[in-house]
Structures are given as structure tokens and as C-alpha cells.
Write a structure and sequence with these properties.
The chain is of the alpha/beta class. It is built from 16 helices and twelve strands. Strand 10 (232-233), helix 11 and strand 11 form a beta-alpha-beta unit. The protein is globular. It comes from Streptomyces albiflavescens.
């Protein structure tokens, strides 16, 4: 228990998390922070050298699945994301989505998710100079110090579980860190069923984060109340600025802030708008209602979505950060936005899992027993 208390103390202050360095040639953080230029874009590049972006959603695995050949370290024009562009955009880590096209369910969804997971690991292994697998905030920092982009697995779709907690545990063992709750019978418009709540408890016990983007308000409300770990919205902007089914109304943003969850605003024209300024408006809105500790970035590149002007691919993050600098965002809030908040929720999920594993054995619940 003393170890858990030490870990909790270490995670209490977001500002004291591991200090990331995106690439080996970057200056020390102190030098970066004292040498920010007056031009917003110069400021953005200098700032991001010490606070690289944690991108909350990338559709790259499915996009790569359809290419006969690719080299992400050399550069790949057929996709939005490769190592040169991530270096240019100061991307230090990103979550690779295991989501599947609509129409796959049951055993087919489980099998296709495993194939996606295998593909991710194969791609990372084939690009050792640019990419490295990571499963925690500490491993993200280690990868960045070595000059690699940290790749995390998830989110996967709820269909990937096949309504089996055993499959959830197997996916976690293989590296899954985020699961989207939408699309399952146990997380519907009516909210979480008894089995759905058991899935959430087991996710907390394992350290798998719950992604609530695209779920019903009833599911959101119950998950916010029941989850012992922070929840995510991996692709949600502000409904008040742009009505969209996956965007969040103001009262949900307020509830998310109270629960210390994380809203990752997508850089897509459909959800955020056609310009960098539109995306910045959403970030302003989420920060105002949920708090600076509860807003992050979701590139949503290689997902088939159209992107705002000047945010066409993974190299473009400096343009967005420059816009926020011009709006007067303090460096402390920008550091939380780019990577600090993702670090916080990962550390919190790991701490919650350690504590839960001391109290609770793996669940053997079946959906037929609880929802039948």
C-alpha cells in the first residue's frame, strides 16, 4: 500500500510528470522556454520541441492495410502520417486505432481486431528508427528520449470483445489501452446494462481506458459516475459550436471536468470546422467549461475524414499551437493540452488498476447471467 501511496503522490501534480523531449537534438526544456520567439509559429516550434504532441487517435493501421508497400521512415505520400511528418509536427506519441468498418460483428470483429493489432506490431517492428511500442506514460517518455514516436494500441471497438471479459483481458495482455464503449448491446441508448458495468469495472481493474465518443448520454452519465479511472472522448468537440452526433453539449463538458476526464478534440472539418481558428475555438470552449486539465488533441488522421485548412496531415500541429499562442494560452495550459493530460490519465488508470487488483479477482461474469 505504501507503494501505491507513493505513486498517487507522484501523479498528483501534472506539472511534475516526466519531462518529455521529442527528439535527441532538441534543446533542454529550460532553454526552449526561455528562447521562445515573438513570431507565433516560431514560438510553437520551440515550445513543441520540449512538449511534443500526444495524438489521441490515428486511423493509420486500417489505411496501411490497403497499401501494397510502404515505408513510414522514408516517407509515405499515400497516408497522412509518416515519421518525417511526425517529426516536423513534433508528434511524440499517438494512439493507433483498432476500429473496424461497419458490418463486422461477433467472431469476425474479434478476429479482425486481432489482425489489426498484429499489423500495428509488425509495422512498429519494421520501423525501429522511428517508432516504438509503448504501454504507459513512462514508456512514452523513454521512447521520446530515444528519438522515437511512441505508439499505443487503441481505441478498439466494443465488438472486439465478443461479449467476453476473457477476451478483454487477452487484448489487454497484447497491449490494448483504450476501448470504445459504443456499438455494444451492453452500452446502448438506454445506458450501461449490468454486464456493461461489469465490463467497465474489469477495464478499471486492468488499466484499459474507456472511450465514450459516440455513446449515448445515458451511457456517458453512468460511465462518468461508475468509472474509478478517468474516461476519454477520443474524437469529440463542442456541440455548442458545431452540432455533430459525436460532439459534447456543455453540460457534459462540465461533468467531464468534474470527473477529471479528457476530451480529445478532433482536427476534422466535419466536427470542428474548416479552419485552424475553428479548431482553436473548440479548444477554447472545452478548456473554459471542463478545465485546462481535461482537453487534448486528436489528429484523426488517416481516418477518411477531411481536415481543416493548414491541418492537412501530422506535420501541421505547429500551426494550431501558433494560433493558441496568439490567443494568449499560457505555456502551462499548452503543456497540458499537448501531452500532460494524456500522461495524467494513463498514470491514473495504471494506479487505479494496481489498487483494484489488490481488492478484486478477474471477473468471470457472463452476459447471459447478468443481462439474460
Amino acid at each position: 500500500m505504501a507503494e501505491l501511496q507513493d505513486e498517487l503522490h507522484a501523479t498528483a501534480e501534472v506539472g511534475e510528470l516526466d519531462r518529455p523531449v521529442a527528439w535527441p537534438e532538441a534543446e533542454s526544456l529550460d532553454a526552449v522556454e526561455t528562447d521562445l520567439g515573438t513570431d507565433p509559429l516560431e514560438q510553437a516550434h520551440a515550445f513543441l520541441a520540449g512538449h511534443p504532441v500526444a495524438d489521441g487517435y490515428s486511423g493509420l493501421p486500417w489505411a496501411l492495410r490497403h497499401l501494397p508497400w510502404f515505408d513510414l521512415e522514408l516517407g509515405e505520400s499515400a497516408v497522412d502520417t509518416d515519421v518525417p511528418r511526425m517529426r516536423e509536427g513534433h508528434v511524440g506519441s499517438l494512439f493507433w486505432s483498432l476500429h473496424l468498418p461497419e458490418g463486422l460483428a461477433g467472431d469476425r470483429a474479434v478476429g479482425a481486431t486481432l489482425e489489426q493489432l498484429d499489423l500495428v506490431k509488425t509495422v512498429v517492428h519494421a520501423h525501429p528508427e522511428g517508432l516504438r511500442m509503448a504501454h504507459s506514460a513512462a514508456e512514452i517518455t523513454d521512447a521520446q528520449y530515444c528519438g522515437r514516436v511512441a505508439v499505443l494500441l487503441g481505441p478498439a471497438g466494443a465488438d472486439a470483445l465478443g461479449d467476453s471479459l476473457g477476451i478483454l483481458r487477452a487484448l489487454h495482455t497484447l497491449g490494448l489501452r483504450v476501448l470504445t464503449l459504443s456499438g455494444a448491446s451492453w452500452a446502448s441508448e438506454a445506458g450501461l446494462t449490468r454486464f456493461g458495468e461489469e465490463v467497465l469495472r474489469e477495464m478499471n481493474r486492468l488499466g484499459v481506458l474507456a472511450d465514450l465518443s459516440g455513446t449515448s448520454e445515458a451511457t456517458i452519465s453512468r460511465a462518468l459516475a461508475a468509472s474509478k479511472a478517468p474516461v476519454l472522448f477520443t474524437r469529440s468537440a463542442a456541440w455548442a459550436l458545431r452540432p455533430h452526433p459525436a460532439n459534447l453539449p456543455d453540460h457534459v463538458l462540465v461533468e467531464l471536468g468534474a470527473a477529471k476526464g479528457l476530451c480529445l478534440v478532433p482536427l476534422t472539418a466535419e466536427q470542428a470546422g474548416p479552419s485552424v481558428r475553428d479548431v482553436a475555438d473548440h479548444l477554447d470552449h472545452v478548456r473554459a467549461l471542463a478545465g485546462a486539465e481535461c482537453v487534448g488533441l486528436s489528429g484523426t488522421y488517416d481516418s477518411g475524414a477531411a481536415h481543416p485548412q493548414d491541418l492537412a496531415d501530422a506535420s501541421c500541429y505547429p500551426y494550431l499551437i501558433a494560433e493558441l499562442f496568439s490567443r494568449g494560452w499560457p505555456e502551462t495550459d499548452l503543456a497540458l493540452l499537448t501531452s500532460g493530460n494524456v500522461q495524467r490519465v494513463l498514470r491514473s488508470a495504471d494506479f487505479t488498476a494496481r489498487a483494484a487488483q489488490q481488492r478484486r479477482e478477474p471477473s468471470t461474469a457472463k452476459i447471459a447471467e447478468l443481462d439474460g
